[in-house]
Design a protein that fits this description.
Length: 253
């Protein structure tokens, strides 16, 4: 049965990844997420066999059926890696609280990477949906009062980020943290609780540092999307929760 579920979640992950690609590229341009996909170059409407995650790209040998232009390779790579991550989550966690949360985080990871790197936007709807799902899961697995306390953790993180953003922008006279980052902080607090979420924040600045330095020197770009690093840090802390808990215990007397 394990193999059956592992394959099912691989398929689900790859199908969702192609949907996430649509969400992350159409919503920032205020296009509808309904409606069929088109070829980027010749606008030819894709038929069902051109829409199968990963496999269509292989069948078509990476070219549009109509205009023969090369299709972007990141799309099948996204579908493949999202499928693999979904499948690994199942094999690692089985059907448990951590499994469902892991699927939510992987989904956010893909959507935020695409929309924030490409448009410097973190969309509201995936954050709202993730918050609701995480709240629901906490309620289901740990009871209502635990879920309600998590809301407070989310609110505290939101407030901390808001203050950092506020004083940061006063200090550097430019936007230090985007509105999307502050909303993402709510999800971090909600999921991890305040101490772990603060560790994720610290970790995210370490993750962002090499990229920020690189983009400052190579492209003179001062605006760096922070969302991908926040969500990566959130995922890492969630994956290694025990390790981070023992680091936290060092600070307790
Ligand atoms: Zn085409």
């Amino acid at each position: 049965m394990n193999i059956y579920y592992a394959v099912t979640f691989f398929i689900l992950g790859s199908v969702l990844a192609s949907f996430y690609g649509v969400v992350a590229t159409r919503l920032p341009e205020e296009k509808s997420i309904l409606g069929r996909s088109h070829c980027l170059y010749c606008n030819h409407t894709l038929s069902w066999f051109e829409l199968i995650p990963v496999f269509s790209f292989l069948f078509l040998r990476g070219k549009c059926k109509n205009c023969k232009k090369k299709l972007p390779v990141y799309e099948p790579l996204m579908e493949l890696s999202c499928g693999i991550l979904f499948s690994l989550s199942y094999l690692y966690y089985g059907f448990s609280y951590s499994f469902w949360v892991s699927l939510i985080l992987i989904s956010l990871l893909f959507i935020i990477f695409v929309s924030d790197f490409r448009y410097m936007i973190i969309l509201d709807s995936p954050l709202v949906l993730s918050s609701l799902l995480i709240f629901g899961l906490k309620w289901f697995y740990y009871g209502l009062s635990s879920a309600l306390w998590s809301l407070l953790d989310g609110a505290i993180l939101f407030f901390i980020f808001y203050l950092i953003g506020y004083f940061g922008s006063k200090l550097f006279s430019r936007e230090a943290l985007g509105g999307g980052d502050i909303k993402l902080a709510f999800v971090m607090g909600l999921l991890l609780g305040v101490p772990h979420a603060i560790m994720a924040l610290v970790l995210s600045t370490f993750l962002a540092l090499p990229y920020a330095t690189y983009s400052l020197f190579s492209t003179k770009e001062r605006e760096v999307p922070f969302g991908p690093f926040l969500i990566s840090a959130l995922f890492i802390v969630f994956l290694f929760l025990d390790k981070f808990s023992s680091i936290l215990n060092l600070f307790k007397f």
